[in-house]
Amino acid sequence: MIARIIEVEKNTMSQTVGVVKTEYFTFAQESEKLMLESGKSLGPVTLAYETYGELDANKENAILICHALSADAHAAGYHEEESDPGWWESMIGPGKAFDTDKYLIICSNVLGGCKGSTGPSSINPGKGKPYALEFPVITIADMVNAQRHLVDHLGIERLLSVAGGSMGGMQVLQWVASFPEKVRSAIPIATALKHSPQQIAFDEVVRQAIMADPDWRCGDYYEYGQPERGLAVSRMIGHITFMSEHSMEEKFSRKLRNGKYSYDFAADFEVENYLRYRGDKFVKRFDANSYLYITKAMDYFDLSGSGLIPLGRDIDTRFLIISFKSDWLYPSYQSQEIVRLLKCNYVDATYCELPSTYGHDAFLVDINEQQELVRHFLDKTYNGYSVVSSYVL
Amino acid sequence: MIARIIEVEKNTMSQTVGVVKTEYFTFAQESEKLMLESGKSLGPVTLAYETYGELDANKENAILICHALSADAHAAGYHEEESDPGWWESMIGPGKAFDTDKYLIICSNVLGGCKGSTGPSSINPGKGKPYALEFPVITIADMVNAQRHLVDHLGIERLLSVAGGSMGGMQVLQWVASFPEKVRSAIPIATALKHSPQQIAFDEVVRQAIMADPDWRCGDYYEYGQPERGLAVSRMIGHITFMSEHSMEEKFSRKLRNGKYSYDFAADFEVENYLRYRGDKFVKRFDANSYLYITKAMDYFDLSGSGLIPLGRDIDTRFLIISFKSDWLYPSYQSQEIVRLLKCNYVDATYCELPSTYGHDAFLVDINEQQELVRHFLDKTYNGYSVVSSYVL
Fold this sequence. Notes:
The structure is a homodimer.
Chain A: H1 2-12, E1 19-20, E2 23-27, E3 34-35, E4 41-42, E5 45-52, E6 62-66, E7 78-79, E8 92-93, E9 98-99, E10 104-108, E11 123-124, E12 129-130, H2 140-153, E13 161-165, H3 167-178, E14 185-189, H4 197-211, H5 228-242, H6 245-251, H7 270-283, H8 288-300, E15 318-324, H9 332-344, E16 349-354, H10 362-365, H11 368-383
Parallel strand pairs in A: 1-7, 6-10, 6-13, 8-9, 13-14, 14-15, 15-16
Antiparallel strand pairs in A: 2-5, 3-4, 5-10, 11-12
Helix pairs in contact in A: 2-3, 4-5, 4-8, 5-7
């Protein structure tokens, strides 16, 4: 039944890009290996990616979307035989903020991921089995460097925009730091120049929960199955930080599953049940080692000081920075630090703090105003006119 | 060397109660079993407790201190052969806020605990081995009911005050709800009338981390050893929530242990090292099952609505309510809910939000102003004069 409804939607909703397919690009073969920040090298490297829309004649309408911690290249539309759309379906499509009638949208799974791009669960060609912990520790700069190879491969010299939330926003900032000449505009959302010790602490607990599970087997679990219990606990911690206290109160309050206390250790409260469900669901779709590598990359990321804009470098990338008032994982002050750094370096930057109550999840789920901000900002960048620069909520 | 310094301090510092000893009170034997909120009964019940100071002739100067999640009866002074003082040494002693020259201070380990009071690690007399999960789920009201037996046993009809922070504050509120005639004044600090879904969520993840450890063995681990890895992860989560973002920044910032990134999964950052250290230390001193039972009791606690003050009941208990601006685990709005409920019921209540940056830990570590507030409040309660009621910071 759901499948049929989806089918109808696919056919009739003009706002979706419809059925899409993931593609794969492999590079850094043999002598051309990808040099990593750690000093190690990696190759061959495959990136899974999707594109929506068409490149224009001047190749000036390409937008790169960067995903957050546990997402993938499937940002919009539907995969054949699947009922869930891509993770930013609400933002990408005909007539939407990332308007596929105007722009070519590209999204790739990050290096280190587990959704088709090379990561710890990929086969280590030298060994004929998954890398596991022999996969080198990678950084956000390494992820972006890999994406740059993909963008070159697609024949795009300069991106109209790079956009993303959370870790996606870190990649946006890293694009400007690494390849400023290739980025006409940048949209970092709900992100930071660097993790605070509290953010590092949450990531460390997430990693410890995975590594504490004996089924993790020092990373060598691929022939036995995932460290499911540890990974589920990790994800439960994550979900608490993604929501605001307010949105938890709205969604769950102290609602009981069975109307009364069980007086045992069952899930009495709806919120407990929700977290258990989320944890269990996650272990079916995400590789535990990828979770370790990607959180480590986020913790290492630090573009404060002269990291984003080296001394003496002129940046003509335009910025739209968005944060959410109720986001306590990436609080607004961190976005304001980005804005301050940019403004002090004469960079064109617009900043909006949106009043959503959804916490860090807001950039994925509460997109009405975000939609308009992005739409106008891209219009202005592409067409050279707009009203956005004075638009502050 | 440390032992010698401590020895000198014990001898010369007038502010400590000096060497103290834990005592034990056993009740609820055979036909007199303790009835629990769940409908089950429990007995015999032992409470470990300590007292500091002397009861006055009228038996009107006794103050009960209630401890938080992982503390115990040892609130002040030093145990023979130990160098660490009790957990609220800064607040209890001669000339301190809880002045042992004036008052008799009592502190007992909670029912369900693992520091001498009956809990899941105690021997189940019917079975000759630890209760483990056969221990009944207990509530804050059950803890307080057990304390009431101890207070009766000590010959005290009415307490001058009941005081405590966090879960200690819940017990304070429960004392007023259960035995209002026995409580002349109440000092709930950094606490709440009920857990929000976010607080329940953190507790649930803490429990899941323990229960996910195969060494937990469905609670029956006593002959094998603790589920150390799960319990350590639990405590790491706790420590993040006890500190504020600000105090983490002050203490750790992004300081690296070895001055550079390891590019592996070692603890690169000081904050990671601190959490691992705290986790490892905790498993040596606290029973995993007690952690499950006590967090569950906190989640069940709910004195909102008419729970604290049943309709038509007159309360002449005086209240001092304290919260801390940077405490995001028990945010000030929760203390303000207590104040509102009291004021609407014509109860004498003074409220102060203190500007400490230490987060939830503040009631244990940042006590200068708290000390003065409590001192004046107790003076007024005991002597019937003071200036405290207009003292609002």
